[in-house]
Amino acid sequence: MSFRASVLTLYPQMFPGHLGESLAGRAMERGDWALETVQIRDFATDRHRSVDDTPAGGGAGMVLRSDVLAAAIDHASPPDDTRPRLLMSPRGRPLAQDRVRELAHGPGVVLVCGRFEGVDQRVIDARGLEEVSVGDFVLSGGEPAALVLLDAVVRLLPGVMGNETSGEFESFEHGLLEHPHYTRPQTWEGRAIPDVLISGDHAKIEAWRRVQSENLTRERRPDLLKAKKKPPQG
Ligand code: SAH
Predict the structure, then answer these.
(1) CATH 1.10.1270.20 fits 169-229, yes or no
(2) Nearest residue by C-alpha to atom 11 in ligand 1
(3) What does the alpha-carbon distance between residue 212 and residue 37 come to, in Å, rounded to a whole number?
(4) I want to staple 113 with a disulfide (CB 3.0 to 4.6 A). Which of 142, 144, 223, 225 is the partner?
């Protein structure tokens, strides 16, 4: 069974977006993964097909209704569905490569895209939605976040990346940022490729890359080094 993504959204026309192109698009054509969108509005029950209402307790904006969203979730993901149900949310756990890898090893995902001020808390609790953030900033809707998550997951599915090994030594896979890259021309605007990289000495190249990787990580993301040193939690 291939990886199955169901995306619940008020803007299904935003999908597959860039995921219809390039590696992800070809993988979809081959059937390595499938994407279904569910229009949340189809589950509205009133005459005006409304999906949102004013926040209890007052305040700005509107809130996605729990009854409408729950009906959409139950349609896309019946109780025996083993796929994790994720709500794109700035309050969620920040998405990181380890969770991306876990998701890529699973049967698929159900992604709920919020809009307005957010989603009624009761549907989050009742349907066990795991809140996931793509960064410490606020988007106008969950759709770009869902596209980001799916992009990161789909490239790790078996057979999707042309060069299988190119997934192994990249940023975050070893708790480090990746070393810098160079390619021809050998000299460009007076800047030469570092000598070691054209030395042909693979052990030296490996060592150089490792040092670059560690230095970059120390300068830019010392938090990654700290996380790496932590003993395994059990
Ligand atoms: N009032 C909310 C923000 C709502 S933004 C708050 O302050 O927390 C509207 C929707 O965009 C959210 O429901 C969520 O689905 C999506 N969204 C916004 N920022 C996001 C982020 N950083 N990561 C994932 N989803 C996000």
Answers:
(1) yes
(2) 141
(3) 43
(4) 142
List alpha helices for 55-201, DSSP H: 66-76, 97-105, 121-126, 143-154
The burial class, CB within 10 Å (0-12 / 13-18 / 19+), for 217 is buried
Reading the chain (234 residues) residue by residue, the pLDDT tens digits are 799 999 999 999 999 999 999 999 999 999 999 999 999 999 999 999 999 999 999 999 999 999 999 999 999 999 999 999 999 999 999 999 999 999 999 999 999 999 999 999 999 999 999 999 999 999 999 999 999 999 999 999 998 986 655 556 789 988 999 999 999 999 999 999 999 999 999 999 999 999 999 999 999 999 999 987 666 654
- 3-state class (DSSP) for residue 218: helix
Instruction: List the domain boundaries for the chain.
Output: 3-154, 169-229
pTM of the predicted structure, to 2 decimals: 0.94
Q: How far is the CA of 158 from the centre of ligand 1 (A)?
A: 31
d(CA 91, CA 131) in angstroms, rounded, equals: 7
Q: What angle do CA 121, 126, 132 make, to 5 degrees?
A: 60
Fold entry, domain 3-154: Alpha/beta knot (3.40.1280)
